[in-house]
Amino acid sequence: MPTRRTALALLLCAGSPVLAQQPRPQRPPQGPSLSGPRTLMAGAMATAFVSRAPANARLAISRPTDPPEAAIVASPLGQATVLSLPAPGEVGTYEWRLLGEVDGKPVILLRQPLATTAPAATLAAPARVARGNPLPVRGIGPNGDRDRVVLVKPDAPPEAQGPNFFPAENVESTLEAPAEPGTYELRYVMDAPLTGPRVLARREVVVE
Fold first, then answer.
1. Last residue of a domain, which of 75, 92, 117?
2. Per-residue confidence at 5, pLDDT binned at 50, 70, 90?
3. Are residues 135 and 195 in the same domain?
4. What local confidence, expressed as pLDDT, does residue 45 receive?
5. Based on the domain organization, do 94 and 161 belong to the same domain?
């Protein structure tokens, strides 16, 4: 006659439903995610991180009241998980948007608040330079991808061309002084969405 211990062993070998391993519940598939700065200087480059985005997704910066098809700036994601967009040049309240498509129409998949603060810039350069000589310059500002530090006549419009460099690539550079002597103006020109070219800082330079 089997003992109680033997009966228990037989029960375990038979796969007791009480002790059988329960299947783990499956986690539901995760959707896309979006993470970017919530505050930054107007006109600066804003970088967002996106994961598990669907095909044909776009990253955009829009006003909170804009419909899905309206964006101040937008770019396709492709296979990228990190993307930079130029922030609007105007101070205000905006939002990041991850956009997808349903029946060929854009839809907002995710959104995150974004606020811009007043843009500012600084310039450093010698006050005087000889004609045609190198002029060492430093310009720091929003450093948007289209911002320029440029040497022009004081009465020139914001979009005027002259010896220049792009601070987004390097905040320091050497410009060639004009061959014509006179008083010039070194400028930091922000060129951002909503504003276009706008002079943020000026410095007088005399070419002798």
1. 117
2. low
3. yes
4. 96
5. no
Give the total number of structural domains in the chain: 2
CB 41 within 8 A of CB 119: yes
What is the predicted pLDDT for the residue at 16?
A: 46
| pLDDT at residue number 9 | 47
User: Do 66 and 95 sit in the same domain of this protein?
Assistant: yes
**In terms of Cα–Cα distance, which of 71, 69, 33, 68 is closest to 53?**
33
Q: Which tens digits make up the pLDDT trace of 109-122?
A: 999 999 999 999 99
* Cut 0.85: pTM above it: no
Q: Are residues 135 and 95 in the same domain?
A: no
Residues 90 and 190: beta-carbon distance below 8 Å? no
Helices assigned H by DSSP within the chain? 4-13
Walk across the sheet containing 92-102 and list its strands: 39-41, 105-117, 92-102, 58-62, 73-76
> Strand, helix or coil at 11?
helix
Strands 58-62 and 92-102: antiparallel
State yes or no: pLDDT of 71 exceeds 60: yes
